[in-house]
Amino acid sequence: MDIVIALGTGSRWQDNELRYALRSIEQHLKGYGKIVLIGEKPKWIKNVEHHYLGDVPGRKNFSIFQKIITGSEWVEGDDFIFWNDDHFLLKNLDVKDFKFWYDRDCHFYAHKATGLYKIAITNTNNLPGKNNYYTDIHTPIVYNKHRFAKLLNLTWKQEFVIKSAYTKNEDGPFEPMDDIKINRFYSVNEWIGKTYNKLFFSIGSYAVNGDFKIFINQKYPNKSQWER
User: Fold this and answer.
1) Quick check: 28 and 91 in contact, CB under 8 A?
2) How many CB atoms lie under 10 A from the CB of residue 221?
3) Could you write out the DSSP letters of every residue in 153-168?
4) Would you say residue 227 lies in a domain?
């Protein structure tokens, strides 16, 4: 199953998040095909299928949606994995064992969020569907390209949270998971504790310090086939 990754211009770490995300894929994921990278292309990357697509200013979710739609045109087969550049896999996993991982529901997060993201979740919460799970946690997701294309029918002058909008009309399998995104400094030992027995974790820009660099390089020490 091919993997689509959307990459913008916001990295404060010279896109090294993507470097280690790819290392985690090669180290732990089974059954994947090619990497389709949509957006920016770091100088250090190789052996990926790359297509440039810029961002729409002020439209973060719509920009990501456009990149996923574009990426879906280049994958082989009907299903593909969408993987963010800051998602790190911690255990061995086969692509056939992917779930729609979620944390609570859109109604809960619509009240919890702030700013533009709150508006996007509220818009998604108000969509009709079979369920209201909040699947926009920091894990990869499997999309069917044909069912994903139906999201083109949404009124994209508004913002939506993409995963939850897609899974509103999916039958599953759904599985609850605590969302692990860390956006502050920790020591190496604290990182080990925070990620213990987790399947995935993710970081924000403010998590990267010297200790994190030591930790992530200990987790994924080997260059992947996608690095120069």
Assistant:
1) yes
2) 9
3) GS-TTS---HHHHHHT
4) no
Give the other-Cβ count within 10 Å of 190's Cβ: 15
CB neighbours of residue 222 within 10 Å? 9
Using one digit for the tens of pLDDT, what is the confidence trace for 6-52? Answer: 999 878 999 999 999 999 999 999 999 999 999 999 999 999 999 99
Of 33, 34, 2, 37, nearest in space to 18 by CA: 37
Q: Which two tokens stand for residue 212?
A: 């994190």
Task: Give the pLDDT score at 10.
Answer: 76
Encoded tokens for 89:
């896999």
State which H helix or E strand residue 215 sits in: helix 210-219
The count of structural domains within the chain is: 1
Three-class DSSP category at 200: strand
Q: Are 172 and 135 in contact (CB under 8 A)?
A: no
Amino acid at 46: K
Residue 190's domain is classified under what CATH number? 3.90.550
Residue 110 lies in a domain: yes
In the numeric block, the tokens 């992917």 are attached to: 98
Expressed as residue numbers, the domain containing 215 is 3-89+98-219
Cα angle at 76 between 73 and 77, to 5 degrees? 100
